[in-house]
Design brief:
alpha+beta, Glutamine Phosphoribosylpyrophosphate, subunit 1, domain 1, 6-stranded antiparallel beta sheet, 3-stranded antiparallel beta sheet, 8 helices, globular, asparagine synthase (glutamine-hydrolyzing) activity, asparagine synthase (glutamine-hydrolyzing)
Length: about 300
């Protein structure tokens, strides 16, 4: 989004998009609308035939690009259709678009899934971006006076934009000390990570960042459930989460490490599918890292 209102540079947009072809080899899409340009690389999972992006609403005043998967999109679609929204695709992307039309920025509170998306609202003249609650999907941005607002799923996409590459020395120190860079910083002073559970609105007045979710913790002194209640709740939550994430228009499988977590997920998937489950693993020459034998045993046990 240009700060001066000048036409967005399509060439810059294309360069940024090409850096991320590995994230979405199935399709690409572009929109240049006045001062705003958005682009998308697509890995097709839901609605392979018509789920192309960017997607717009009926009067082409709101556009969206989306990375991720919304697990409760069938329920949201039914609710929105009953309120008069017309769908042209079966994609979860279009569900977010119409949900935004219905409830605005608070649409993120209704989404169950992993996501990073950007909406260009030409009526409000804002770019609205959001990241899922736990930050499964990445989202980086840069905003400098005179340079404009840029965002992308990877830092190297932003480095194709005309922004400063000056290093953030505190971040480099943090990385050498902690082996990671704490959010919202990156190794570049002009580039920031949108924190998990946050939204960002860019308008002519600047940036507004809002936290919409945090991990709910019990109040001090509040008594927790007993052991059996915890076990029942965990089992229910795992089964529900796995079943929701099995919605797909392409074949699904499971990555097995041989550990308890991936074994649990694969076991629930196999039970829900009612048929043999494809599983994958990776082996290492160094025995202390290799769990391929454990993974093979789990795969054979699950059939």
């Amino acid at each position: 989004m240009t700060e001066s209102g000048a036409l967005a540079d399509r060439a810059v947009l294309e360069r940024m998009n090409r850096t991320m072809i590995h994230r979405g080899p199935d399709d690409e899409g572009y929109l240049v609308s006045g001062p705003v340009g958005i682009a998308m690389r697509r890995l097709s999972i839901i609605d392979l035939e018509s789920g192309f992006q960017p997607i717009c609403n009926e009067d082409k005043t709101i556009w969206i690009v989306f990375n991720g998967e919304i697990y409760n999109h069938p329920e949201l679609r039914s609710e929105l259709a009953s309120k008069g929204h017309v769908f042209r695709t079966r994609s979860d992307t279009e569900v977010i678009l119409h949900l935004y039309e219905e409830v605005g920025d608070s649409c993120v509170n209704r989404l169950n899934g992993m996501f990073a998306f950007a909406i260009w609202d030409s009526v409000r003249h804002v770019v609205f971006i959001a990241r899922d609650r736990l930050g499964i999907k990445p989202l980086f941005y840069s905003y400098e006076r005179g340079a404009g607002f840029y965002f992308g799923s990877e830092i190297k996409a932003l480095l194709e934009a005309p922004i400063s590459r000056k290093p953030d020395y505190q971040s480099l120190y943090d990385y050498l000390s902690l082996m990671y860079v704490p959010t919202p910083a990156t190794a570049f002073a002009a580039i920031r990570k949108l924190p998990p559970g946050h939204t960002l609105t860019c308008s002519q007045d600047g940036l507004t960042i809002r936290q919409y979710w945090d991990i709910p913790l019990p109040a001090e002194g509040e008594e927790g459930s007993g052991k059996w209640e915890f076990e029942e709740e965990i089992l229910h939550l795992v089964q529900t989460a796995v079943q929701r994430q099995m919605i797909s228009d392409v074949p699904i499988g499971a990555l097995l490490s041989g550990g308890l977590d991936s074994t649990t997920v694969a076991a629930v998937m196999a039970r829900k599918l009612g048929m043999p489950l494809r599983t994958f693993t990776i082996g290492f020459d160094k025995k202390s890292y290799d769990e391929s034998e454990e993974a093979r045993f789990v795969a054979q046990t699950l059939g």
